[in-house]
């Protein structure tokens, strides 16, 4: 009886088959370039995730819109019940009565209650009680969502816009730069780089885990140039720019670090297409010695200059 050797896969969960090999798997911002279709709304709906991850401006608009719509609804209910069931209403028209009911609703939902307007009768008091309860629950949820957004650890690692293939010692190397633009400290930073290339005469793709010159650093207070030496063990060995473009190569970057501010592990992702790799260029030196400090010009992290490749 023969024992079958277990096959090892390095596709990162992205799959070896692609419907359109011209499309990148991972966007520059780290999001996956995948659209899931024909999923019922009840299965794909994730309100908490949407509210926590949406842009801050959108989140503020959602909260304010919910507050405004809720007050409009309850003001309409008070109007239907009859403003005579609200003491202190000073209105000569239906619109003025609605405005008075709207502001009474805003006072009730926030449990503020100035006292000039108050509900009279079972119906009006019941609606006010329900609204105050919804207000307490709603503001508690909004506070929790706000804290969740504020306390959510996220990595803002900045990647160079292009990668390069440049001279490295007596061979060549695939390189790109990363930097932490924020003042928080990232510790135990690890990088993983994989290469995805199309198989010849096939719709399938192969994935290769690239060996790095240095895959981990303890501190990342400066800019880190991540290097994959292109030696005879590298899947890039013997390739040139035309070959990599023909194979529709994509370099997939994943990074992991410990954020000292949040005391949590954070992750970052990005990718480079073959067309985003500059061959025969190297990154320029951007460090400057200033009195008592090391100056790093992050605005120049994408600058490159010509460099003859080793043959």
Give a concise summary:
Helices cover 29% and strands 28% of the residues.
Question: Topology of this protein?
Answer:
Elements: H1 41-44, H2 47-53, H3 56-81, E1 86-87, H4 94-109, E2 118-119, H5 122-151, E3 158-159, E4 163-168, E5 171-179, E6 186-198, E7 205-210, E8 216-219, E9 224-230, H6 241-246, E10 250-259, E11 264-273, E12 277-279, E13 281-283, E14 287-290, E15 293-296, E16 304-306
Parallel strand pairs: 4-12
Antiparallel strand pairs: 1-2, 3-5, 4-5, 5-9, 6-7, 6-8, 6-10, 10-11, 13-16, 14-15
Helix pairs in contact: 2-5, 3-4, 3-5
User: What's the alpha carbon Rg, rounded to whole Å?
Assistant: 29 Å
So, CATH architecture of the largest domain? Sandwich
Arithmetic mean pLDDT: 86
Tally of contiguous helical segments: 6
CATH class of the largest domain: Mainly Beta
The end-to-end distance, rounded to whole angstroms, is 48 Å
Describe the model.
With about 300 residues, this protein is of the alpha+beta class. The protein has 2 domains: about 55-150, Helix Hairpins; about 160-305, Sandwich (Immunoglobulin-like), CATH 2.60.40.1400. It contains 6 helices and 16 strands. The chain has helices at about 40-45, 45-55, 55-80, 95-110, 120-150, 240-245; strands at about 85, 120, 160, 165-170, 170-180, 185-200, 205-210, 215-220, 225-230, 250-260, 265-275, 275-280, 280-285, 285-290, 295, 305. The strands form 5 sheets. Strands 3, 4, 5, 9 and 12 form a 5-stranded mixed beta sheet that branches. Strands 6, 7, 8, 10 and 11 form a 5-stranded antiparallel beta sheet that branches. It has a two-stranded antiparallel ribbon with strand order 1-2. It is elongated, with a radius of gyration of 29 Å. The model has no long low-confidence stretch (mean pLDDT about 85).
